[in-house]
Amino acid sequence: MLPRLAWRNLWRQRTRTLILISAVTFSYALLLVAMGVGDDSHQQMLDAAVEGAGGDVLVHRDGYWSTLAADLVLPDGLAVAERARGVEGVAEAIPRIRLPALVSTADGARAVDLLAVDPLVEEALVDIHEHLVEGERLDATALESPILLGIRMAEDLETEVGGRVVLTASGWDGELTRALFRVAGFLETGIREVDETLAYTTLQAAWGALGDSATVTQVGVLVQEGTDVEVLAEALREGLGRDGVPVEVLTWRQAVPEMVGFIETDDAFLYIYAAVMFVVVAFAIANTFLVAVTERVREFGLLNALGLRGRRIGVLVLVETAVLTLVAVGVGFAIALAGHLAIDHWGIPIAIWGMEDMELAGVNISDMVMRSQITTSKWIVATVAVMVTTVGSAVFAAVKAARLVPAEAMRFYE
Amino acid sequence: MSEPLIRAEGVTKVFRQGELEVHALRGVDLTVGVGEFSALAGPSGCGKTTLLNLIGALDEPSGGVLSVAGQDVTQLARGDAADFRLDHVGFVFQAYNLVPVLTAYENAEFTLLLRGASREERRTVVEPLLERVGLGGLFERKPHELSGGQQQRVAVVRALATSPSIVLADEPTANLDSTASAGLLDLMLELNQELGTTFLFATHDELVLERAKRVVRMLDGRVDEDIWD
Amino acid sequence: MNLSVRLGIRNLARHRWRSILTLGGVAAAVALMVWTLAFVDGWLDLMVRGATAVETGQVQVHSRAYADQPRVYRSFHADDAFLDTLTALSEVDAAAPRVKLAGLVGNERTSQVARLLGVDPTRETETTAVAEGVVEGRWLSGSPADLTRPREVVLGRGLARQLRVAPGDELVVFLEAADGSLGNDLLQVVGVLETGNSMVDRGTAYMHIEDAQWVAALDGEIHEVALRTADPELAPLAAAAVAARLEALDGAGLPEEEGLVAQPWQELLPGLSQILSVSRESYLFMYLMVYLVAAVGILNTQRMSAQERRREFGVLVAVGLAPRRLLGILVVEALVLGMLGALAGGLVGGVISWWHATAGLDLSVFTDQGGFSYMGVVFEGRIFARMSAAAVAQPVLVMLVVAVLSGLWPAWVASRIEPAPTIAGRT
Questions:
Q1: Which of C170, C202, C228 marks a domain boundary?
Q2: For a pLDDT cut of 70, what percent of chain C falls above it?
Q3: Does C14 lie at the interface with B, CB-CB under 8 angstroms?
């Protein structure tokens, strides 16, 4: 009987109930949407970071990642990659060479982050030809020692497709090596810093210049859907660490700690705001119920005189709040879901806020389009938090209602 | 004979409650002269409160002629009605007369304040009146610190403070015991005689009817009997 | 005291719990906004400082061609007299000449690509905070080492780590000189830098400007002059003043199209400048969200309060209170409520912000990674909020407006009261 009584009581004060429901609904939906958008942007940042780092799990010569030192290499990198592919849960293992180098022409020299890859294998992580604006693909060109250059660097050096550039880098033995490369094409990502420093070549060409045929600096491992990255990293440590050179196996969390730090901080701020917003809402709700109780003393007095115990009157107030909360959470969830689907479908380009390029933890992110993503556990926690806050804020009023004595209640003016 | 204070001719009032039309007044003819101490009487629903409200410009008649203190009160704008009441009418209601957060003195001077009277002007009017109704020494009390009778006396002072043409009192004694009622009514009668202010009651309290100089009995929205003492 | 204010305050006092709860909501909202403003101001200061104070400076002078496209040979002549002319401007506090090169720095084990900055150690210290970032060894000495010894170099921490070197170790530099030749020289690490500017920390090496000019065959010429101004916000004005002075100097003897240009950091770092303005605009969004919730609270309280007191209002209108006056009384009541809440919130937010401005906010509370880098600025350890009168006053004043606006509707509804039925208890 209490829920029915509670339901009818709520609709007797239609305006007030609607205001209450809308306040809870609004803040709840706002929280869910903010979390959805936040989680998605964070995911995009992480994807960019993983792409920049080279994989979900990275295998290097021990000590390489913190120094990026060109002499810390995996001398038998191809075999390492092959063995990694055999580990349960590995989708792909990509051998590659990262090499800081100087590219020069008659018009000057530019520092580059040279990546030597097998374009076909690399495709599992990123299509390096995605930003090709002029020239040929590395795997389609007939040129010997082909290289793709960032467009701004190419313009600075005044090279053209088919032109020659000299690459200066320190070889595996630490000796400076110079080698001739032919420009296969230009890449344009739209991010200034990247277009000034990006360069891709093939593993074969790099080996040709550096004098070896199996050495790489990194094996980037991609995990299969649903595989725990930490567990896999442990398995790789077991499987790869036993013989040969000492290796380090890093998960993306360990590989891009600054990005993880940013995301965790960003999340923390979202929670601070959510918490204060809910304090504000809770105050408003507590208030409303308090007034509702004072206003209904006669009614409660009547119920009490009819034999409803004080405690049950308190329960009635709580049941009313619970009903209200359920309605608000239901409507709020529907709105949030609609908002989530709409944002996920159309996306919000951050350019509308006047932001184009962003540099985060050394990762460049350009023209990001914010979409939305549901993290089930977070939505559940938020929902429970909202329900507890709302019902909790009515406790004061419920206690007050329960303590009213009938005679006093009936004597109350009116 | 000069123009009466209140002149009502064929006054009607219809309330609409959804589909239903309630004829509260079905054609009331009534004149009230200056200085009267009269009462509208009759059973619940006879229309006495409605008539009192029309006279006080709290509501508009549906038809007929109604003038109070020489002013047509049948079609006053909201703001004008408030001004009219401030200038010509004093009210004493059954309950909720006083602003709970104001003291007895502040409640009493409220209408004068609305008129823009200075502090000094308000004091010279309100203080003697409060003393006169026996509330000397209770100026700073809040309404909930006063008895029902004392609260009604404050309301009477507030009604009289602006020297209105007429004081309209709707069941002023309904919430009081008989001693408090008698005291309040005797006070009002004395003030009627001393100040010459017209009083018009709506009541079915015998104590009021005993003291009234004229009792207008109403029935079903019409004047049934008009008895002069 | 004015009747409306008196009635407002007493009515609020009468329903103490209701008022306290509403006040609490309003105060929480205002406190959050005060803290947000102070914190974002502090954060933006840190961004601007991290981006400009360490390396860029607030204004830079280049040759027009270099500003358009940096080339090692696009240099210009700048002697002490020229620099003194610039520092003579009231807008300019200090000036530092620089040679900017890119090259490979390494040893027999490994090598790395580095930005090489040739600087005048004294003038650089006057202009930027880079020398304060020395965490190992020391900053460049006052004059270059004598010619029998290796050239002094100070490395960013990342570079030092990648090369696995410490002060005392030797390195070799290779780079493309201005005349197209390959320059090289022997360096000795004298210090390691950690400045909070990721460009400097990750890959920059500082050396004496004379050494840099020698290895790059620049013959006493420089690429840029970095200028320090008192207020980073006013850098565009300072740049304009510098530009006017440069014009008067007749382009430092260069042909018209090769003249010198002065650019404020807002132009040099457009991405950062964008982020700053976006962050400032995001205040509006925050206000909208937080204050909307607070406004619902006020509106609700006032609506209920009016509902509860309708008999009282009926009597007041009956005895002659004009509806407009009643409206005024109720709006004042909402204003008083908002004002008390806003003041309390301003106080609480002010205290928290002051605390975060003096003691700082420890980022490791939020992330066990200890920090992050954003737009080239490293945020680590503690972030300090910036307290200002505006950061406290603005949220308080905006709340007053919000309070009046959200009190308006309930007041208007209440003032439309029909006295007769209300008193009779028919509504």
A1: C228
A2: 95
A3: yes
